[in-house]
Amino acid sequence: MLGSMRILKLHTHYQQPGGEDGVFGTEVALLRDQGHTVVALTFHNKQLEDVSFLWRAAVTLWNREAHSRVREAIRLHRPDILHVHNTFPLASPAVIHAAKAEGVPVVMTLHNYRLLCVNALLFRHGQVCEACMGRLPWRGALYGCYRDSRSASAVVAGMLALHRALGTWSLVDRFIALTEFARQKFIEGGFPPEKIAVKPNFVHPDPGLGEGGGGYALFVGRLSPEKGVKTLLRAWEQLGVKIPLKIVGDGPLMPGVSRLAQKVRGLEILGYKEPEEIYSLMGKASFLVFPSECYEGFPRILIEAFAKGLPVLTSALGSQGSVVEHLRTGLHFRPGDPEDLAAKVEWLLAHPKELVRMRKEARAEYEARYTAERNYEQLMAIYRGVLEGRR
Prior knowledge:
By secondary structure, the protein is an alpha/beta fold. It contains 15 helices and 14 strands. The strands form 3 sheets. A 6-stranded parallel beta sheet has the order 2-1-3-4-7-8, with helices on both faces.
């Protein structure tokens, strides 16, 4: 029965490489490779760039066109299940009601904390914030947590409040959290435990094991405050030239990062790189540094590092702290503490045999938990549970 399953996959596209968009495409390809009929229904947020604020607000709350489009797709393709990856903002949660109107069960992947937090990060003013956890998100609107705009934040808060009142989330048959940490946060936020399964992201195809002979550390990510970039740079100011650091990525902090790179020896700013270029850099790096100061959902860069046999130095916080096992697949350091990060780097440099062991453990972790084959098994178990529950 599972080999003939028909799945409607829905996602709102951010027009950005990797991230949720990359996960969506990879999962669609995996299911098709396994013989399933998969219809990908994508909404493009780029359509919102040249419209009025009022129109954008209206579709964020309830997109009637998206509701109709999903009902038409269900009538045409008769899927066994609708799997929603992201509705924000263009598709809107109206698509969940559309599936229920057609009698199709819904699975929803929780890629971030949007259903608990206006900015989806549980992060405000440089630190973790749970002010709206389990409550109506009026604080998020008051603080302007979404894009530093009270008006835009009010729209997002209104969407969350509206669909809580409508019981939209109760219509979802199963949520997928990416880590057990994230699952617990949603339970704290009022979601029923029995409805939340855990299935991590995965990497496919396998990028292959690297050799790690480049003699440098690597950072890959958005150059923004919540990613811990300032902590990273302050740590390397202390480390000096003990090990070079290559920084891959772009973002609002790029001007300051570039200025500092001219003063601190050993910093190299590479800007945006294509995935294959990143894999090449990862294969030669000694270790990856992931200093994020927000909870994160499930950064694919961590399991890409594991696939390359690359140990990770990460902040002991949120999902990233649970994915990277201290002294096995990497090291933890205190979030926002450049002195502790520098100390952990120095420890790794002083223990080359431990670093070699961690490389082997990182690769073993990928093979055990984050391959396409393992992920497919987990996803099918979730789908099967939903359909058997319906019967």
